[in-house]
Amino acid sequence: MAEPAPQEKGNASSVPKKESGSTAEPKIGVFVCHCGSNIAGVVDCGIVREAASKLPGVVVAKENKYTCSDLGQEEIIKAIKENGVDRVVVASCSPRLHEPTFRKCIQQAGLNPYLLHMVNIREQCSWVHTHQKHEATEKACDLVRMGVSKAAKLEPLEAREVPVEPTSLVIGGGVAGIQAALDLANMGFKVYMVESEPSIGGKMAMLDKTFPTGDCAICILAPKMVELSRHPNITLLSYSEVEEVKGYVGNFDVKVRRKPRYVIEKKCVGCGVCAEVCPVKVDNEFDLGFGQRRAIYVQFPQAVPLKYTVDKEHCLHFKSGKCLLCVKACTNEAIDHSMKDELVSLKVGTIIVATGYDTYEPMKKGVYKYWEYDNVITGLELERLLNASGPTGGHLIRPSDGKLPKRIAFIQCVGSRNKKIDRPYCSRVCCMYAIKNAQIIMEHEPETEIAVYYNDIRAFGKGFEELYHRIREDYAVEFIRGRPAKLAQDPVTKSITIRAEETLLNKITEREFDLVVLSVGLSPSEGTKKISKILGLTTSADGFLMEAHPKLRPVDTAMDGIYVAGCAQSPKDIPDSVAQAKAAASSAAAPMFAKKVTIEPLTASANEELCMGCGLCIELCPYGAPELVASAKGGMKAHIIEALCHGCGTCAASCPQKAIITRQFTDDQIYSEIQAALSENGKRILARKKAEAEAS
Amino acid sequence: MKDQEKEVEKVFIGGLHEELVADKVISEDQLVPDFPDQIRKYGGKDVMTCLQCGNCTGVCPISLKIDYKTRNIIKCCQFGLKKYTLGTNWVCATCYRCYEHCPADLNPAEVMIALRHIAVREGIIPPFIKTVATNVVKFGQSVKPDAGNDKIRRELGLGPTQSQDPEYHSVIREIQVLVHASKYDKLIGIQDEVKV
């Protein structure tokens, strides 16, 4: 990878004046688009064109069926070349989609691309006034008049390019993060992977099998984890957390806090002698409290990196200053209880957020008595109980007495699709993991009776419906449509009676089960919440990270250069997480392959002469773009970091000295639009007022 | 054979088998298409948002004992089976347990209250409602004061009711004025009891 060129602190307004028409009278071309019948079906485009042609400065006024088509663009180019048009007004749709199209078009004709103004007469006119054709035409004329008056004051601008650091940061080492990191590393980019747990693997490492094919989760994940740790392009920072991110697309400065493991990673070989001698036993979080671990531990046998970690909270040495049995046992002298946190600074060009999910925690005083009855467990706990490397070696037991449960109930939609507890969304995986776990149990113990209490079964993926049918037909798992109303425990046998209305039978039934599994939904993880604050990412109402567009930009975020993958964005299964991770990796690779990104010049700029250094803009800016710098003439003056500026105009509107302007939205341009709006409208409003007064 | 038939019909629409046995099938003219809108008008939420999960039936202390099931009544409201629903709503104890559990946040208890509003306006008023309303306008309380009650009160160490108090009569009069002004007396059909 080539060394990126040093970033220039250029000013976009200093532009070569190759085609500026600011001195001579501007020649404006107006192109009114029919958009098929989208606009022309309501607005009389002929009248709009007529009115536009009479406006001052307009030399060409044309109509097109589709201005964005080849033919329409040809017409614009012709007008620029033959009629000497130097300002273009396109009256068509919202600039969101086609502004780049027309900018490219006029650039081809040799005009500065920012000498274009789009007037929205579709979304803001024809579509909202479908039944008021006359008024809509009047409004379109007004909008075009405003656009023309603004276009006359447009200034040429030059887009700026900044170099992109060809390095990526992947936050979160679950299956999505692992896949994204591997893809980017295989493309040849350097990748930093930050994981807060001692080992990568995420939630997928905890699962037993995967639906619908029944692959063993860790068997398909572990090779990827190992590949990641050995990849020459990937630096793995496990047991670390992102603390601070500054900068902008292509040039992020990241601070990562490496939590102390109290084991020197380079020296530890993962032999496990230390854990054998450690006298402390505590519940293993990875087994969700079912198994135990020592105070020096690896989370699970396939952990990557296979380095031991000292649990400071439980280690005897940190409590009493003694013990140190592990230190004596370790032949490589890898254990160092005096380790401290370490702050690592990284410079990266792009960031992929894959911070995953947490499972829903049932309510303390809820109907399903998760906290009161031993034999009510969650789906993830069942995964650990079924897992061959789990606390029971893959033997399913009842937590209350360690016996094999004969009758098992699954309760679906716990913490999902419930408006009452403000969790209205579907978690997408619970139906299928319950079905998959039912199948595994039936394969192990064909005599088991299994009932699934559900509302709707959502088996939407490839092979899901087939699995659902197989489990009903081959294994005779009973599916009961109804939401359980009450759970009661037998004080002696610890069996649990579920009362529910079986809505398809129209009966209230009470059935007894040995084990009840709550199919809990997915929530945004703590890490997702933290990282959204650090990176300034927006979240949707459910707390998951918001994508830039739900359909067309599903892995981008509102912040350029930051992408999202996996369950950090929304609940999804493993295939979807992997697909999204691959998409995020290719999206992140695009600017890194290009080695540069174009930054729009539609930013704010501060005038040093006028600025009095009050700092109001710094307080108001949502992007952290303004800064106060010491001026050569003395005093602190505002300076806008253009790469951070989104051109929202908040600073310009609030500046008491009018020292800040937003390019292409200068006061001069906006006032001329307002004047144009009022010139005809003003008369119309006065006439209407007069008529009203007479009528009353 | 006949029992089986009955069972089938009970399953079909649920709970309201008496009516269904009499009518056999639902015909078009029994459906009231804007029934959900009427329920909304009288303070109920939109019954069309019900997921039919049956949680309300499961927690309902009344549904456990009788054939009317909360979910079925809501289902009938969705259909627009006005005739069937209007006789059922008085059994609801408005304990609001269904409201606490409903994942669609529908509040079936308030749907029942809306159904009562509609029923009363349709003239479907059970006799006990008239009795209670009459007691309120005549005695200012829902239970009629009589010698028997006074005896029990004395035994429990409570004083007699205030019905002999002269102030009591002015309070009754105020109640009657209110009842008359709000046309409640006419609605329930107790205008003869109100003397304004």
What does this structure look like?
The complex is a heterodimer of chains A (696) and B (196). Chain A has 696 residues and is an alpha/beta fold. Chain A contains 18 helices and 32 strands. In chain A, the strands form 11 sheets. Chain A has a 5-stranded parallel β-sheet with strand order 8-7-6-16-27. Chain A is globular and about 90 Å long. Chain A starts with 27 loop residues before the first strand and ends with a helix. The relative contact order of chain A is 0.10. Mean pLDDT of chain A is 91; it is low at 1-22. Chain B folds into 2 domains: 2-121, Fumarate Reductase Iron-sulfur Protein, Chain B, domain 2, CATH 1.10.1060; 127-193, no CATH class. Chain B is 55% helix and 0% strand. Chain B contains 12 helices and no strands. Chain B has helices at residues 2-13, 17-23, 35-41, 55-59, 70-79, 82-85, 97-101, 108-121, 127-139, 147-155, 166-181, 184-188. In chain B, helix 3 crosses helix 8 (108-121) and helix 9 crosses helix 11. Chain B starts with a helix and ends in an 8-residue tail after the last helix.
Instruction: Return the average pLDDT of chain A rounded to an integer.
Output: 91
Share of residues in strands of chain B = under 5%
Structural class of chain A: alpha/beta
Biggest sheet overview of chain B: none
Task: Specify the CATH architecture of the largest domain in chain B.
Answer: Orthogonal Bundle
End-to-end separation of chain B: 60 Å
